[in-house]
Amino acid sequence: MILVTFLLSIIVSIYQSYGSEFQTRGIPLQRASIYNPFKDFMCLDGSSTIPFSYVNDDFCDCTDGTDEPGTSACSNGLFFCTNKGHISRFIPSSFVNDGFCDCCDGSDEYLTSNCTNLCEQLGEEARREAERRSQKISEGARLREQMMAEAKRLLKEKQERVAVLENEKSEAVRLKDEAESLKKTAEERESAVLEEFRAKEKAQRDLKAQEEAEEELKEVKSLFETYDSNGDGVLQVEEVKSRPIFDQNKDTVVTDDEIKFMEIGEINYDTFVEKVWPILKPIVTMSKVKVYPPEEEAWKDNTEEEPNEDNNEEELNDDEIPENGDLENEDEETENKDSYEPTYDEETAKIVEEANQARSHYESTLRTVQDLDRELSHIKEFLSKDYGTDDEFAPLDGQCFTYTDREYSYKLCPFDQVTQMSKSGGSETRLGTWAGWADKEYSTMLYDKGQSCWNGPQRSTRVTVNCGLENEVKSASEPNKCEYVLEFETPAACKLSEKNKDTHDEL
Asked: Which sequence ranges form a coiled-coil region, renumbered to this chain (predicted)?
């Protein structure tokens, strides 16, 4: 009995001294104490306790698979690759002895030993890459500090500008209100004098129109008397047909169609004024502006010699047709009315000019206020954005960066929008406008509410932000319809904590 106890103590001592040599396959050194071959094994989820001989016996006894870390018996088990010289990691225990080398040290294929230990080689490459990344992060962090300093300067400048603009706006609003009051007073004076001026002008126009109408009636009466060749106070068809002015087609014959107005019957002076003159007026007008010497000669050949009053009519046709019937003059008058600019008297012109100047001055002060409002709004929007923990991304606002692949050119304007344009030409397509950050780590920008796809949703873009020594879009893709992903590098994303993290992982 004493001998057995002595032997057991020796075995325990040896295990404690050389535990790593007897370490259970598939577990990290940190868990070695849990897998004690001299004790029953308790499943890590506490579901059951089994004899240690059941560990790695190629049969799954624990529901969490922790009794088979070194075999593929448990579908939910994990095998630990020590990978000395490189990075240790866990792999699914189902990968153990499956014929593929998953651990760089080949420990997962221990039954065949066909795997070459590549850990030292891979570790060396990883260390070189880690060193390059460390240097990149260090340099990027230095540039990030510069961007932070630039951000601080920008924000201070913007805040100071807001204070200046607020003061300028207060004064501009005061001047605008003052100008508006002056404009109102000037326009009231203008309205009063223009009302008086228009009343006088209307009275003058009415008087002139009355005089012209009376003059026209005199001329119409004279024309009626000329056409009424027998002086009986009634126009007859024969009297009208004898007048070449009614020969509209100039064939030397006045047809019934050319004097349809005669169908109304006997035409006395009143009927002539009321019904015939409106029809004749254009004809008389045209006869004045167009002269037909050959036709008149023809009329002389085809008509008997008329009394002297006919000669008087010919003189009237050529020289005395009332100007009021001139169609072209009427058109000119209409055109002149459209472009009519009244000629004011000196006092009225002065008041109108003062009102114009008051309006112009008010509009100028209003534009000044609007310009200040726009600038204030733009700056306040800038100041309201989240530019990172230390505002390190602020200098990117207002800049744009492009990336071109085989088909498209992409433009990223941080904190504004993302656009796309076909290399073959055409207009830009908006892939989204600034919507904020996706996480507290400031590693992903979100842009939404872009232009709608054909029969699809509005376009949107996620921009992953990584450490880089330059501000540069590295790639662009559309993994899902109307959903775009851009990769963007910037020194603003270079943090020394990332360097420390890499060092920790490598250790």
From this structure: 141-230
DSSP 92: E
- Chain centre to alpha carbon of residue 95: 54
Which tokens go with 489?
């590098």
- Per-residue pLDDT, averaged over 293-315, amounts to 44
> 3-state class of 248 per DSSP?
coil
Cα(276)–Cα(235) distance, rounded to whole angstroms? 11
Query: In the prediction, which pLDDT does 9 show?
Result: 52
Collapsing DSSP states into helix, strand and coil, what is residue 113?
A: coil
In eight-state DSSP terms, residue 452 is: B
Instruction: State the alpha helices, DSSP H only, in 326-426.
Output: 327-338, 346-384
Q: How far is CA 345 from CA 198, 350, 356, in A?
A: 12, 9, 16
Per residue in 336-376, pLDDT (tens digit) is 555 566 788 899 999 999 999 999 999 999 999 999 999 99
156's tokens? 């201070």
- Cα separation of 404 and 9, whole Å? 73
The span from the CA of 402 to the CA of 19, in Å, is: 59
CA 222 to chain centre: 72
CATH of 394-496, one of 3.10.310.10, 3.40.50.2000, 3.40.630.190, 2.70.130.10: 2.70.130.10
Q: Kindly provide the b/e burial profile for residues 34-56, where b requires at least 16 CB atoms within 10 angstroms of the residue's own CB.
A: ebeeeeebebeeeeeeeebebbb
Listed by start position, the domains of the chain span: 22-116, 122-286, 394-496
Cβ atoms 365, 175 nearer than 8 A? yes
Round to whole Å and give the CA distance between 83 and 87.
6
Q: Which residue has the tokens 């200098």?
A: 395
371 contacts: CB under 8 Å, gap ≥ 6: none
Within 10 Å of residue 221's Cβ, how many Cβ atoms? Answer: 13
Q: Using one digit for the tens of pLDDT, what is the confidence trace for 263-286?
A: 666 788 888 888 888 877 887 777
Asked whether the beta carbons of 489 and 468 are under 8 A apart, the reply is: yes
Q: Are 182 and 366 in contact (CB under 8 A)?
A: no
d(CA 457, CA 463): 19
Asked whether the beta carbons of 217 and 287 are under 8 A apart, the reply is no
For residue 63, give the nearest of 53, 50, 51, 52 by alpha carbon. 50
Between CA 109 and CA 97 the distance in angstroms is 5
The separation between the first and the last C-alpha atoms of the chain, rounded to the nearest angstrom, is 48
Compute the chain's Rg from CA coordinates: 52
**pTM of the full structure:** 0.59
